[in-house]
Amino acid sequence: MNASADRPHVLVLGGGPDAEREVSLKSARAIADALESTGRFGVTFAPIHRVIQAELSAMPGTVIFPYLHGAWGEGGPLQDLLEADGRPFVGSGACASRQAMDKVASKAAALRLGIATPMFHVFDPRDPACPIPYPVILKPVHEGSTVGLFVCTCDLEWRAAREVIAADARRGVHRAYLIEPRVGGGRGRELTVGIIDRRALPIIEITPAEGLYDYEAKYNRDDTRYTLDPSLPAGLADRMKAESLRLFAAMGCRHIARVDFMLDPVSGQAHFLEINTTPGFTDHSLVPKAARHAGQDMPALCAELVGLALRDARSDPNWASTRGGGLAAAAAATP
């Protein structure tokens, strides 16, 4: 769909080269449909694999809404291209995206702020022993959606995980991993806080029908239970929201994120797990669920995010000269 002179033209990017490509295509398609439904935007939906600077520059649009999950699309490389392109875009910049994708860096940021997070070891494939008592989580430092994650409760499971990692390396799939204790020994409550700009959305508790909240439970199964505004110990919800917003700001994130915690049922302590700067936007996804619970439907949410990209572009003294007068018209049309 083309934009008229008084409507911003939004280029929605989806796909990418990473393991979460199919989910990214679903998220981006949902965003494009939501924006089109408002009647306020021209929309181009562009499935991509990887692009180079010249290819991105040739794509139409006055505002870019990138929604690629995975290390290339949300971990910095695409954001480098977007920053060089010069058009306003939704989401965090390259530096914040890299820090958020790196689970070690984001846990270090949380610790600097005094936010509780499980202590961790960096996985050494040369060492056959697990360095901390079971049960443990062994997970890639630079992946999302539980891609490549293992739960190990004994030596047999630890050896099996190491064998899979070694086999991946032989196939050319090299990942850095961290090891952390499983909060509550597997009885922890999984909680998440969505962030839109400077506000925290209602907390959601995630209860898979069985096992982990893994890729299947996130995107394909319909038996995961989501509880909006769950019952929590006194003051915990406010503290989690405040900690999420502090971390979001300290890491330089912008526009949107989701911050994941695990609540230890014995101590009552919520432990930070990770921050995701491109959280899912499918019909199973948590940020749209939380926004809807707070009274904001998907079209309004996506329109707000476009508006935030334009707002931040206005604060850049060089933005108005980029790509002629199209951006100025887009900004004038979007409050």
Explain what this protein looks like in three dimensions.
This protein has about 325 residues and is α+β, with helices and mostly antiparallel strands. It has 12 helices and 13 strands. Strands 8, 9, 10, 11, 12 and 13 form a 6-stranded antiparallel β-sheet that branches. A 4-stranded antiparallel β-sheet has the order 4-7-5-6, with helices on one face. Helix 1 packs across helix 11. The chain is globular and about 60 Å long. The chain starts with 8 loop residues before the first strand and ends with a helix.
Major β-sheet annotation: 6 strands, antiparallel
CATH topology name of the largest domain, in short, is D-amino Acid Aminotransferase, Chain A, domain 1
Question: Looking at this structure, what is the CATH superfamily of the largest domain?
Answer: ATP-grasp fold, B domain
* Gyration radius, rounded: 20 Å
- CATH class category of the largest domain: Alpha Beta
Looking at how many chains there are and whether they match, the oligomeric state comes to: single chain
Summarize the structure.
This protein is of the alpha+beta class and 335 residues long. It is 37% helix and 20% strand. It has three domains: 9-90 and 297-333, Rossmann fold (3-Layer(aba) Sandwich), CATH 3.40.50.20; 99-116 and 186-291, D-amino Acid Aminotransferase, Chain A, domain 1 (2-Layer Sandwich), CATH 3.30.470; 121-181, Dna Ligase, domain 1, CATH 3.30.1490.
